Amino acid sequence: MLVYSSRDSLLEKYINDEREFLELDLSSVDLSELDLSGSCFRGCRFEGVNFTRTDFTGCKFHNCVAERAEYLAADCSEAKFVGCNLSNSNWRGARLSAARFEETKLTGATFAEIKSLGLEFHECLLVSCALRGFSFRKQKLDGLNFSDADLAGADFRDAVFTNCSLRGASLKSANFRGADLRGCDLGTFSIADANTFKGAIISASQASELLAVYEIHVD
After folding, report:
1. Global model pTM greater than 0.85
2. What is d(CA 91, CA 149) in angstroms, rounded to the nearest whole number?
């Protein structure tokens, strides 16, 4: 059962060395510029919360909801998000070095001007997510749904896709050289679009689907 909490209540518990927070409802509360590093949050609600410049270094979030939350310039280095709903959240300017998102919904989330060295996504919904210029170079991408995402200028060189989707994604100036796309749903694309995937590895069936658009059939 969720228990409503406040900024002062949370801060008091943290000052008194509490680090485990269970089923708290902090929706719409201003939690900006706090040091909550090393904490573990389970089943908490942070809908619409302002986390601007908050320190979440090394924090763990399990089954939390933080739709529309603002993580502007927040420090989430080495943080871990598992089974969370972070749809339409804003991460502009956040530090996400060595952070991990696992089985998490990030539909409509915005990642811009972030520090992302070592950042990983695993089995996440990234539908309509803004990831312009993001580097996935040499990463093993498993279970990522990039449908309708903004991936303009993204770096996918030498990445390996497994159970992924790029259907409807914006891929202008993205680099897929050396990427293995055989485990990815590329959606419908034209010969002109094929230049985007220059240097990538695709399967025979994917090549056949591309040629079929022009009524060219592989025997």
Report:
1. yes
2. 15
Query: Alpha-carbon distance 61 to 137, whole Å?
Result: 26
Q: Which residues are within 8 A (CB) of 127 and not within 5 positions of it... i.e. 6 or more apart?
A: 107, 108, 145, 146, 147, 148, 149
> How do the pLDDT tens digits run along the chain, 219 residues long?
788 899 999 999 999 999 999 999 999 999 999 999 999 999 999 999 999 999 999 999 999 999 999 999 999 999 999 999 999 999 999 999 999 999 999 999 999 999 999 999 999 999 999 999 999 999 999 999 999 999 999 999 999 999 999 999 999 999 999 999 999 999 876 666 677 888 999 888 877 777 666 665 656
Both tokens of 122, joined, read 């695993």
CB 48 within 8 A of CB 27: yes
CA distance 159 to 176: 8
- Burial 164-183, CB ≥16 within 10 A → b, else e: bbbbebbbeebbbeebbbee
* Torsion angles phi and psi, residue 113, rounded to 5: 55, 35
Helical (H) or strand (E) element with 162: strand 160-162
Please state the φ and ψ torsions of residue 196, each to the nearest 5 degrees.
Answer: -60, -35
